[in-house]
């Protein structure tokens, strides 16, 4: 055992805790999930061995085949094992990958530039993302005796280009029509998708799987990779839950981010016809463009989104809407077929103000974009947009939104 790594820094005395600035730098946390054998370990191995200059703590449930990484020191502490690596990274194997484990890590090792959490055995990243998103109780600097808290940076999903489509299909089939399975939930809940092993398939297959992925999640950029080789800037420091530049994905009609790290041929099929229909029956997405909203409409949007996220139901169509004549479109009671897993949006007000919508399952927030945040503002046109990802998002959802918020 190494004595340095064993040293536990003194906890901040209670009297000093109030001095910790609420704006103290928070350590970004990225959740990595992915299909079985897709290349998660390959990605982590790269991060743990590359000379990137960041102090990154990687937390896994088990080391797996990354255990042979050359370590400066190994610490064994109860339920956790920590490898301190030559490039400044820390590799931790902790049985419990929840908040308690992270708190322990923060107390023990102090500041990191970034924390990666590999969601092994935690197929659905949604609940853990929700736990770290704005959870001051768990991850507050004061509660962990550190000057830094933790902020959720993003969820990265590694998808296998060889078996990805098959896994999505089987996932769906195994669970029946109404219960989308793990791989679809992983795609739906991710902010960035790494489409790995593209060296093993034809480019037309890559294009087909990209369409399938986009059907489920149109806002996550897709990066094609071989052995998870990509610029770490695409997955770290992306601030997917803020008002930052990465909301530009909302504005990308193809919903596709070109990764120029590799010389791959990109084929845009331009339609989803190549994708089996049942892939999109499980989880799909809905994009709705919104005109600039008055203050009243902005309030109405808050009520509408709250109703669908918290009560899993749509507000009834307003009487003025002609479509209420169609009884099928009149839906107001709880509709268990609706389940929003992730939402994002930009709301533009007639006053010129802009607000970003961020939501993970039933949690959501509407954050004003600062006037000086040109990185977000400049990329958007004058109208807003909302993207919902989940189950049961049909045309009736769009009609309910337009009717109750915009008035037509
Ligand atoms: N040809 C090729 N092989 C790859 C690529 N990425 C990973 N592999 C290989 O695929 C296998 C699985 O990769 P891993 O990184 O272990 O996958 P994983 O997602 O961690 O696997 P589990 O933890 O079992 O879910 C390994 O043998 C890798 O060497 C790639 O882009 N191309």
From TrEMBL:
Annotated spans, Disordered: 249-275
Keywords for this protein: Chaperone, GTP-binding, Hydrolase, Nucleotide-binding, Zinc
Molecular function as annotated in GO: GTP binding; hydrolase activity
A GO term from the CC aspect: cytoplasm
InterPro entries (alphabetical): CobW-likC_sf, CobW-like_C, CobW/HypB/UreG_nucleotide-bd, P-loop_NTPase, Zinc-reg_GTPase_activator
UniProt entry tagged with the keyword Flavoprotein: no
CobW/HypB/UreG nucleotide-binding domain residues: 28-223
Segments of skewed composition (Basic and acidic residues): 251-269
Ranges for domain CobW C-terminal: 337-401
Enzymatic reactions: GTP + H2O = GDP + phosphate + H(+)
Domain of life: Eukaryota
Family that this chain belongs to: Belongs to the SIMIBI class G3E GTPase family. ZNG1 subfamily.
Protein name: CobW domain-containing protein
Origin species: Lentinula aciculospora
